[in-house]
Amino acid sequence: MTSPPGQRNGGILSPARLNVIFSTTTVSLTVTLHNTDSQAAQRVVVVLSLARGASASPIVRRETLADVGAGQSAQLRFAALGKVPLVTQTRLTLTLSGHAHPYAIVFTPPD
């Protein structure tokens, strides 16, 4: 495996590999949800949890989407998440209506 891909100004995180996100210590993330079902998804609860190591409590944010139509997409922006660990591997977990999706990430300062 070569070096992990970097996320600059957007990008898709992969659950199968380490994700590098170029950022300052304060981060905002946008989550795009795609409803591939044939029926609308109602009251979709999205919980973002970002581990910050043993010395700090995790960042946890919760949002609810009222409705995502069949075959439609919706976006949530989690702005100003607070101070994140730089150059240390951590875990970002998105939980969608009870189903957890973990991602290994490293925040690194921009060049």
Would you kindly provide a written description of the structure presented here, covering whatever features stand out?
Strand 4 and strand 5 form a beta hairpin. The model is unreliable at 1-6 (pLDDT under 50). The protein has 111 residues and is mostly beta strands. Helices cover 0% and strands 50% of the residues. The strands form 2 sheets. Strands 1-2-8-7-4-5 form a 6-stranded mixed beta sheet, with no helix packed on it. The chain is elongated, with a radius of gyration of 15 Å. It has no helices and 8 strands. The chain has a single domain (18-108), classed as Immunoglobulins (Immunoglobulin-like), CATH 2.60.40. The two termini are 23 Å apart.
Topology:
Elements: E1 6-7, E2 19-22, E3 29-34, E4 41-50, E5 59-68, E6 73-78, E7 89-96, E8 99-108
Parallel strand pairs: 1-2, 2-8
Antiparallel strand pairs: 3-6, 4-5, 4-7, 7-8
Characteristic terms for this protein:
single chain; 111 residues; six-stranded mixed sheet; 8 strands; 50% strand
